[in-house]
Amino acid sequence: MPDGAFANSVGCGFDAHIARMANRSAWKGRFNRFGLGSLIYVLYLVIELFRYRPVDLDICIDGRNYSFQQAWMATVSNHPYYGGGMRIAPSARGDDGLLHVTVVGPMQRWKILALFLTTHTPQVPHL
Which whole-number Å values give the CA distances from 120 to 58, 90, 107, in the listed order? Predict the structure, then answer.
């Protein structure tokens, strides 16, 4: 097992965009005062769902190159859940020394909305 530590997940794409928008929002503090801070993420999810444009993604894993067209997001994780309970890497375990790469590729916008609004997402294909 390599030296170092990795906790939970790191990602890029739509989910990171939503987090950035919500965390920079002046509304987040106001929502937090009333215990409703997580609603700001839902608000930006709905707004940005229609603005965000998936991108082509090239990644290298263990020396192998992969290309994805119209990727919504990519996540590297060692735990099955992130984002308040979203099941992104069902077979990931924090104690096995492995990192799981999940890429959400071409998908209709309404399915992206369902993916984020459910606490247990359908099993997302991962590499």
Answer: 27, 10, 18
